[in-house]
Design goal:
Blueprint: E1 5-8, E2 19-24, E3 27-33, E4 36-39, H1 43-49, E5 53-55, E6 61-63, E7 72-78, E8 83-89, E9 97-101, E10 106-108, E11 119-124, E12 127-132, E13 137-139, H2 143-149, E14 153-155, E15 162-164, E16 173-180, E17 184-195, H3 200-243
Parallel strand pairs: 9-17
Antiparallel strand pairs: 1-6, 1-17, 2-3, 2-7, 3-4, 5-6, 7-8, 10-15, 11-12, 11-16, 12-13, 14-15, 16-17
Length: 244
């Protein structure tokens, strides 16, 4: 998905004697030969990727902040071993920003169907909060994570998507998913914003209740006074009638 970082791994690990060359749509984009590496040696490659390519000593190619225009066929050739691997990369556009109100549930979509040998690791502000391997699932294995989320994290066993229930303001921040396999690695980033829910509605209800209570109390105080003055008026009237 747009904005991800993707690493493509060759089927073998290269050594100092290998010459590893990466191609995108038959254009050479990177080459590593021993300790020397060249990335985007021509103007067209620089225009396409704009310093978003990196190749490490094992021969793996990383594309950061990936875009729709990066979709296509990638090929790696290890000349000394006569090895060639082909990758088909498809980039989809998606918003990685999530905004919810306090108390709501938010799901961060992994965007893939988890394969048995994939390793999926979730991070919150660079701290590991969940991990899913072939046969087990771990959530909040450290005290800091447990104190922050308190059993509010859930992992989907099929997709690896992360769900946060009963969100709080402190859940706002940067979440990252690192999905690794033998053929590729994908780092997916999410920004979650949890907004405070104002209690003005409940305050209005409370104020209304207070007003009603005050009115009732005043009426209870007023009724005896009215009754008293009414009785006094009646007694005075009867007194005057007797005098007449």
């Amino acid at each position: 998905m747009e904005g991800d970082s993707v690493t493509l791994h060759s089927s073998v690990t290269s050594n100092q004697q290998d010459r590893v060359t990466w191609f995108f749509k038959d254009y050479r984009v990177a080459q590593i030969n021993g300790a020397q590496s060249k990335i985007c040696a021509d103007a067209q490659c620089k225009e396409w990727f704009q310093d978003r390519l990196n190749v490490n000593q094992t021969g793996s190619l990383t594309i950061t902040n990936i875009r729709n225009t990066d979709s296509g066929r990638y090929q790696v050739r290890i000349t000394s071993r006569n090895i060639a691997d082909i990758f088909s990369v498809t980039v989809h556009g998606v918003s990685a920003a999530k905004s919810v109100k306090e108390g709501e549930t938010v799901t961060l979509d992994a965007g893939v169907i988890k394969k048995p040998k994939d390793l999926m690791t979730w991070y919150f502000n660079d701290t590991c909060i969940a991990e899913m391997t072939e046969d087990q699932c771990k959530i909040c294995t450290n005290d800091q994570c447990e104190e922050r989320f308190r059993d509010r994290l859930k992992l989907d066993n099929e997709t690896g998507s992360l769900t946060i229930t009963n969100t709080t303001i402190t859940d706002s921040g940067d979440y990252k998913l690192n999905n690794s396999s033998s053929r590729f690695s994908i780092i997916r980033s999410f920004t979650v914003t949890v907004t405070y829910v104002s209690d003005s509605g409940s305050s209005s209800v409370t104020a209304a209740v207070v007003v009603v209570v005050v009115v009732v109390v005043l009426l209870l105080l007023l009724i005896p006074a009215v009754v008293f003055y009414t009785c006094q008026a009646v007694m005075k009237r009867e007194y005057y009638i007797q005098l007449i």
